[in-house]
Specification:
4 helices; alpha+beta
Length: about 130
Amino acid sequence: YQRRVRDADLQRQRARANPRAVIWGKPAKLIRARYTSGDDKVHQSTLLYSGWWGMSRHFHYIAELSACVCWTLPVGFDHVAAWVYVIFLSILLFDRAYRDELRCQKKYGKFWTEYCKKVPYRVIPYVY
């Protein structure tokens, strides 16, 4: 769990620091996004759409949910109470992903739309 999250964060950091970074043996795929902050200053940010970040826009949530399920599996399926945290975390993270999408669309506009076309899944590849 932690290894994947750390690796995903390292990929993003490397790509932001060096546009020629290599992710999984290939050049990083980047979108240079511009946005205007509340003080009317124009800023630039990098949206990475390769490596872990090419699989889904909120890849790190998969790792968190997977860890949560793994911690709960030894209890089995006979006790619903054991799965309350898995259900709670799922609702929390999927709602957060939705709210993040709205915030990023507002912030990045056409750049976020382009990013969403390149990375069509919010959390779970081929599902959502």
